[in-house]
Each structure stands twice: as C-alpha cells, then as structure tokens.
Amino acid sequence: MPRSPSSWNASASCRLEWRPSRLLGAMLALIGVLAVCAVLASGLPGWVIALLGPCSAAQASVSLRRYLRRPPRQLVIPYGEAAPTLDGVTLARCQVQWRGPLAFLAWRDAAGRRGHLVWWPDTLEARARRELRLAAEGLAVSARGAAMAT
Fold it and tell me: pTM for this one?
C-alpha cells in the first residue's frame, strides 16, 4: 500500500501571495465596453453621447490600469497566538470569509486603518486555498480565545 504524503505541519505558518486577478481584469474591461455600448444605445442627444462615450471609456481604462498595477502582497498567518502580517506590517484584527470560490480578507492595522483583499480562483490554487482555510480556522479560534472549563 503506498504511503500517503506527509500531512500538513500544524506548526507551520501560512504564507500566501496576493496578486491582481486576470479574470477580474477581463471582467472590468468587459464592463467598460458595455458602458460605452450603453451610452451609444441610449436615447441621449448626439452631443451628450459624444461627451459621455469617451468619458466612460477613459474611466474604464483608468480603473483597469489601476487594478492591474497593484503590487503583489505577502500575507503570513503564523501558527498560534502570533498576529498575522501583510507585507511585514502586523495586522491588529484579521478575518477571512469565503463566498464560493472567492476568499475575502478584511483587516485593521495597528493604526486602525481598514484594508481588504480578494483572492479569485485564478490567483489561489487548490493547495493554497486549503492552507488558507486551515489558517483562517486558527485565526477564528485565537480571536475567540481559549475555552475554559469551569
């Protein structure tokens, strides 16, 4: 009988890289094209269409460029009571939520500023997804605190 691969090391930390999703970039581009088509198909006067068409195309391209140029981020969720870090900055509160194949990370840093990241299916492979699920369970347990028997 073949040996199973070594199991996940419970004392290892979860290290994940976030990067912009090409899938989301394609959807943003499609929304931009549809916005221009909506302006062209509207019943507005020609001079309004001539103003709004290029404006909607410019806004879509700026949004797409801004999203795709976001730098990669490095998330580390250590095992145990240690606080998670994002790009070396300690996160005061950190929460992972799942909605279908999407993973949402919401946090507050030490200064109280909020932040969030979303991992799309094309940016988080199956192994990393499992790793994040296990680390997120550990985060939830450490946030609630240890239960005490009375």
Answer: 0.76
